[in-house]
User: Fold this.
Amino acid sequence: MHVYVINLMTSHDRREYIVSQLARARVTDYRIVPGTDGRSVDPNDAGIVDQDVRAVTGDWLRGGAVACALSHLAVYRQVLKDGADYAVVLEDDAVLPSDFQGIAREISSTIGSADVALLYYSRQHERRPCELSAFGAKSLDPSRTLALPIDINQPAGGVAYVISRECCSRMLDHFPPIQATADAWGFFQHLGIIHRLWCVSPALVGVAPFRSTIGYTGYFTLKGELLSWIDSRRVFPFYQLARFRRQRKLMGRGQAIVVSEEPRWQ
Assistant:
């Protein structure tokens, strides 16, 4: 199973962290793909960001979110270059279980040639569990299920997922310019890039409480610079309080309930 990890070249601590997670899960076939730094991205560049879409979405497609999308596209190019039929894409704050490899392989042999399977996800803008359909659900092991979401726009997250080579090719046919965030799965399905979106329940992968390097808080704002300084120097007690707050925000994510209802988007 080919595993691709997105990591900013300047984020040495996060690289050490994810390498230790891969070692713990006994993953040896992986590649670190350098991420795009949001500070190097000009969201006003029409060659990088679709300006018509940006006019509608406002400030959401700022440098950090665009850089994240470009980083995932870089992985897709590498997947095509390597000739992998399926790949696992990880961001560098993923928490991997000991059975990660076996289940990821099983998923890749289960999903279709134009499908994506989320190994971690959260309900878009909400803390409630995602709703998955019992119709067509597949058992992975005694404790996990692979199922389709009731609402394809509900699950969000690009921390960990299995993607097919066909989907990678279609992504690169459409982007850039960037029209959406890296985890706009419903949008990608609407465009015909992906056929089906699957979710593992309960989520296979977790997320460590690192501060996001995407930069939803502007890099060049006073708040952004202050948070970066606190995080890099682990200033007591502000670093500990921020980490605790991030841990609380992560609580409840990656959870889902399976209901007796067919997907509304199929």
Q: What stands out?
A: The mean pLDDT is 86.
